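User: Some background: our group keeps a shared notebook of sequences we're curious about, and every so often someone picks one and asks for a predicted structure to add to the entry. Today it's my turn. The entry only has the sequence so far, pasted here. Could you supply the structure so I can complete it?
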Amino acid sequence: MAVATATAIMGGLGLAKGIYDTVDGKRKEKARQAELDAYQRKERENAFRNMQISTIGSDAMREESSRNIATSMNSIGNAGTRAIIGATPRLVAEQNNVNRNIQKELDDQVIKRNYAIVGDDSQIRRMQEDRENADLAGLGNAIDVARQDANTGMNTMFNSIGGIASSMKGQIGKDPSNLYNKGGFGGGFNPGKNIGYEFKPVWG
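Assistant: Of course. Here's the predicted structure to add to the notebook entry:
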């Protein structure tokens, strides 16, 4: 009977632990699933997208061209109308060439900025994908662990119930007096016999 009682106590403790593990596992699974459902991507800003195009170089070329044209006009101004007419196509060509160089300098900056934007976008995308994959994998693993804990708790509950039932097998429905007289406590053990008095159960 002592063995059966100890088994029942251990079964009761196992049942309590199984209930706790089951409830705790389900709670954690629900919490991690809520985090997974509410997961939002963390957008990063491209550092090159709002980068301004510098006009310092183009402004310097434009100022230099204006000074050169002014100097040239002053030089040929005293040579008469024919000299001015003759020099005008050359001055216009020089000015056009300066304008093309200015435009090329600005276009080169735009192209470099666009390449930088594309490169940074690609890097940001890789970083976001790596981070999101790690986050989602972590949440998925946490859900699996919580679900496994809950299943383990349920198995512990069932095993404990089975152990309790086994320890009580054969005792249910017996005459209580049999626990004293017919082996319920170790084959008819009655400590009163050793001192000349036999204990009698109160029920008969």
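Suggested note for the entry: DSSP finds four helices and no strands in the chain. Residues 177-204 form one domain.
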